[in-house]
């Protein structure tokens, strides 16, 4: 008799179920104790299954098992273990891969590892004790410390670094902003791309952008600007990366610049995690739906649209380590405001005996210009003492030479860094040598007792004859006569003194947080100073969050300082936030209120509605919606005021990745990312991202970020897949090299789901964990509760199965079967059979 039944969709592996029934019972036994197999009887007169092979704790069957490897309780990583049936029973085999991950002294090995034959670990390694936990899939190895190789915590052997797979990707960030005031229409469009291709351990990368601007009286179509194009490869022998092409040098110590040439630089990410050792946060206030553009070193590094009110940008990736960020806010009425966010890194300390280096040579680049001038730049840091680092650097050009010497010191009262740069400049017109110097000091401290974080960076240019390489190259290639000092000061805006201060003070649980950031600039040949600062205080009362702040910025249109005072409130109402912001400056009093929120199981939808007014009788309303999909991020905003100013903006970002299994769309990816492939597993949840991402129709998905030279866990959740889809594993480890694109392949199998209600000759119920094999001796399933045989490994539609619960002839029986082998069907087939 044949029965068909649809089961609830849950993931079930019959082999694991049968084994779990045995292994989940307590095997914590003494030397000669044995487990009573009678516990597995289905009834009083039922036969008893032979479980002698499981009388030892955590006994396993021969085969391969994924496992976490622990040596003396230290996690060494993930590996596929091999267990073979040897003359001494089931033994763990010492493979070359296992020997490598154990990381033992050569004298620990009594026999050489092998893949050809099984070399039992317990006889091949001296004084070793092993225990395989079948429940946790964990191998515990105990061995005398003298036989292990002493490594820093988090060490990963370079032999485990993975090159990844050949692949090509393209990140895109497209933004269109348009406003109309009745008399004029301005449209701004921006397209930024980050593209790359990988072959082996070589990586090709390119970044660039293009801007369009159109209005009634002008049509500006900028050229495509390439910011970076380079070929890169890492080398473990030099603990560094070689770069060839258009790249940026690090401005951590010396003047950061863009070159076309060759760079060799150390990479601290190659160090163990315990031996490893900044982009600033941009905050501002928009009076309407506005466009925010951020520039560094003359190039646009970020552009986005923001709704009215306070905004915070935390996902910047500035190129190099030097160069303040110029933030430009374009309001919906065309007004443009700018302010500067200081970006001055304190040279970090490095551990005693370690070094950090960079050497670069090539032609000088600035923006889209490539100059014929060749430049050599080199830096070196060395940890002389545990708390003292020496910093040095040199920049060479035929008309310029700059040498830096400094040090960083860690003390109980904070971290100090100081350096001096001596520069010699030659201008072609006069051939006169200008010798100058600059002194730089910085200080940073985080006082835990008072919850105070202070960063003070003071750049002091005491010499009026100090110039940068950019000054010299720019003058040389623009034919300026710089004999006149006033002209030099006017062209270069040469700093005389620069002070920057940042304080973040937590006042306690009930008293909020005080934040201050400020900077003062003075220049040679110019009177007065320029001050920019922001002071804010934030706190909450019950569910009400509030912030009050004062800032000073520069209004680009009027070339004056703009002092602004603002007050903001927000309170959650269910899944929504209601907020209000009040802003006062010397020209306007603005009030803005909004309702915002997100929805969806993973908050993938977001929205905001806002209204604003000011004392100039201007009123406006706006709306913003966004959607985070598996294939990208999308934002849309629209607004209008009572002066007939209308605004609309659209933003889209994401990635397109071409790989060996096709083309996959995804979120914006980093230089390191992973591709998941699981054939036939459409809809499986990607656990690595935590954003509700699922495998696409082809069983592919993109994990947008991975960490190089570190263990990354990539997993999927098959809970909502059909029950006839089985996985060999649902989590894997990868250790990517820098810039690698790793393909993580999850092996899947579609099976025919068959249940046999087995009746024995004497009518007794078969014991749980009884094995069933086909006529070739292949295991096809196990007996579960109620004497039901779950056979999901059938390879023939018709045949004979042998059911065995012991070694005697009276402890086994046979039955013939005929089923419909259809692994595309999610229907469970149930048959009643008689075992003879």
UniProtKB/TrEMBL annotation:
<keyword id="KW-0998">Cell outer membrane</keyword>
<dbReference type="InterPro" id="IPR037224">
    <property type="entry name" value="PapC_N_sf"/>
</dbReference>
<keyword id="KW-0813">Transport</keyword>
<feature type="domain" description="PapC N-terminal">
    <location>
        <begin position="34"/>
        <end position="175"/>
    </location>
</feature>
<keyword id="KW-1029">Fimbrium biogenesis</keyword>
<dbReference type="GO" id="GO:0009297">
    <property type="term" value="P:pilus assembly"/>
</dbReference>
<dbReference type="GO" id="GO:0015473">
    <property type="term" value="F:fimbrial usher porin activity"/>
</dbReference>
<dbReference type="GO" id="GO:0009279">
    <property type="term" value="C:cell outer membrane"/>
</dbReference>
<keyword id="KW-1015">Disulfide bond</keyword>
<comment type="similarity">
    <text>Belongs to the fimbrial export usher family.</text>
</comment>
<dbReference type="Pfam" id="PF00577">
    <property type="entry name" value="Usher"/>
</dbReference>
<keyword id="KW-1134">Transmembrane beta strand</keyword>
<dbReference type="InterPro" id="IPR042186">
    <property type="entry name" value="FimD_plug_dom"/>
</dbReference>
<keyword id="KW-0472">Membrane</keyword>
<dbReference type="InterPro" id="IPR018030">
    <property type="entry name" value="Fimbrial_membr_usher_CS"/>
</dbReference>
<dbReference type="InterPro" id="IPR025949">
    <property type="entry name" value="PapC-like_C"/>
</dbReference>
<feature type="signal peptide">
    <location>
        <begin position="1"/>
        <end position="31"/>
    </location>
</feature>
<dbReference type="InterPro" id="IPR000015">
    <property type="entry name" value="Fimb_usher"/>
</dbReference>
<dbReference type="Pfam" id="PF13953">
    <property type="entry name" value="PapC_C"/>
</dbReference>
<dbReference type="InterPro" id="IPR025885">
    <property type="entry name" value="PapC_N"/>
</dbReference>
<keyword id="KW-0812">Transmembrane</keyword>
<dbReference type="Pfam" id="PF13954">
    <property type="entry name" value="PapC_N"/>
</dbReference>
<keyword id="KW-0732">Signal</keyword>
<protein>
    <recommendedName>
        <fullName>Outer membrane usher protein HifC</fullName>
    </recommendedName>
</protein>
<comment type="function">
    <text>Essential for piliation.</text>
</comment>
<feature type="domain" description="PapC-like C-terminal">
    <location>
        <begin position="755"/>
        <end position="819"/>
    </location>
</feature>
<dbReference type="InterPro" id="IPR043142">
    <property type="entry name" value="PapC-like_C_sf"/>
</dbReference>
């Amino acid at each position: 008799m044949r029965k068909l039944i649809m089961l609830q969709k849950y993931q079930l592996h019959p082999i694991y179920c049968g084994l779990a029934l045995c292994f989940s019972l307590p095997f914590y036994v003494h030397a000669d104790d044995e487990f009573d197999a009678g516990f597995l009887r289905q009834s009083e007169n039922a036969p008893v299954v032979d479980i002698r092979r499981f009388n030892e704790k955590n006994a396993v069957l021969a085969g391969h098992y994924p496992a976490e490897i622990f040596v003396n309780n230290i996690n060494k990583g993930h590996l596929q273990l091999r267990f073979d049936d040897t003359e001494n029973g089931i033994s763990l085999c010492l493979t070359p891969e296992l020997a490598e991950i154990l990381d033992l002294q050569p004298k620990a090995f009594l026999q050489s590892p092998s893949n050809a034959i099984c070399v039992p670990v317990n006889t091949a390694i001296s004084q070793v004790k092993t225990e395989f936990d079948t429940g946790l899939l964990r191998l515990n190895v105990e061995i005398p410390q003298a036989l292990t190789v002493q490594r820093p915590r988090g060490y990963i052997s370079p032999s485990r670094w993975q090159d990844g797979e050949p692949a090509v990707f393209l990140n895109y960030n497209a933004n269109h902003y348009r406003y109309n005031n009745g008399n004029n229409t301005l449209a701004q469009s921006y397209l930024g791309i980050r593209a790359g291709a990988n072959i082996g351990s070589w990586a090709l990368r390119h970044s660039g952008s293009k801007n369009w601007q159109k209005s009634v009286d002008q049509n500006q179509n900028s050229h495509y600007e390439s910011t970076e194009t380079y070929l890169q490869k890492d080398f473990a022998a030099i603990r560094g990366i070689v770069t060839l092409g258009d790249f940026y040098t690090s401005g951590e110590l010396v003047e950061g610049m863009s070159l076309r040439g060759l760079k060799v630089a150390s990479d601290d990410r190659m160090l163990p995690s315990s031996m490893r050792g900044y982009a600033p946060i941009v905050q501002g206030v928009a009076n309407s739906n506005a466009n925010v553009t951020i520039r560094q070193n003359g190039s646009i590094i970020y552009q986005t649209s923001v709704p009215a009110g306070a905004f915070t940008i935390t996902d910047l990736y500035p190129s190099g380590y030097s160069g303040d960020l110029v933030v430009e806010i374009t309001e919906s009425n065309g007004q443009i405001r700018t302010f500067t966010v200081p970006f001055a890194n304190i040279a970090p300390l490095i551990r005693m005996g370690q070094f950090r280096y960079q050497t670069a040579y090539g032609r000088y680049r600035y923006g889209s210009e490539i100059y014929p001038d060749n430049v050599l730049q080199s830096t070196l840091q060395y940890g002389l003492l545990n708390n003292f680092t020496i910093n040095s650097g040199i920049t060479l050009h035929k008309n310029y030479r700059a040498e830096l010497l400094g040090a960083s010191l860690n003390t109980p009262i904070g971290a100090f860094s100081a350096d001096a740069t001596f520069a010699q400049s030659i201008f072609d017109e006069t051939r006169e040598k200008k010798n100058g110097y600059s002194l730089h000091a910085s200080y940073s401290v985080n006082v835990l007792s008072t919850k105070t974080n202070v960063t003070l960076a003071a750049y002091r240019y005491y010499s009026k004859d100090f110039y940068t390489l950019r000054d010299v190259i720019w003058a040389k290639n623009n034919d300026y006569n710089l004999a006149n000092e006033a002209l030099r000061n006017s062209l270069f805006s040469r700093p005389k003194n620069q002070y920057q201060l940042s304080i973040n003070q937590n006042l306690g649980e009930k008293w909020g947080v005080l934040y201050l950031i400020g900077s003062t600039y003075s220049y040679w040949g110019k009177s007065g100073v320029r001050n920019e600062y922001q002071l804010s205080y934030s706190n909450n009362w019950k569910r009400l969050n509030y912030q009050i702040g004062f800032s000073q910025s520069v209004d680009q249109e009027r070339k004056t300082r703009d002092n602004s005072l603002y007050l903001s409130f927000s309170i959650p109402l269910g899944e929504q936030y209601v907020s209000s912001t009040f802003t006062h400056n010397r020209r306007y009093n603005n009030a803005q209120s909004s309702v915002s929120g997100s929805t969806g199981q993973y908050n993938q939808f977001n929205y905001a509605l806002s209204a604003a007014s000011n004392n100039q009788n201007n009123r406006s309303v706006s709306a913003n919606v966004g959607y985070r999909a598996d294939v990208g991020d999308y934002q849309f905003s629209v607004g209008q005021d009572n002066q007939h100013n209308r605004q609309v903006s659209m933003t889209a970002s994401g990635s397109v990745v071409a790989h060996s299994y096709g083309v996959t769309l995804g979120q914006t990816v980093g230089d390191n990312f992973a591709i998941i492939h699981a054939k036939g597993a459409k809809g499986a949840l990607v656990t690595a991202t935590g954003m509700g991402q699922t495998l696409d129709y082809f069983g592919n998905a993109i994990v947008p970020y991975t960490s190089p030279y570190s263990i990354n866990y990539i997993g999927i959740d098959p809970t909502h897949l059909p029950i006839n889809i089985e996985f060999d594993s649902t989590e894997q480890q990868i250790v990517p090299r820098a810039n690698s694109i790793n393909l993580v392949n999850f092996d899947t199998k579609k099976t025919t789901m068959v249940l046999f209600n087995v009746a024995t000759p004497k009518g007794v119920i078969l014991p749980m964990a009884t094995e069933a094999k086909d006529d070739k001796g292949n295991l096809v399933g196990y007996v579960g509760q109620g004497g039901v045989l779950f056979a999901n490994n059938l390879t023939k539609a018709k045949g004979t199965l042998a059911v065995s619960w012991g070694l005697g002839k009276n402890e086994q029986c046979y039955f013939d079967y005929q089923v419909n082998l259809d692994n595309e069907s999610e229907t469970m087939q149930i048959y009643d059979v008689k075992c003879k």
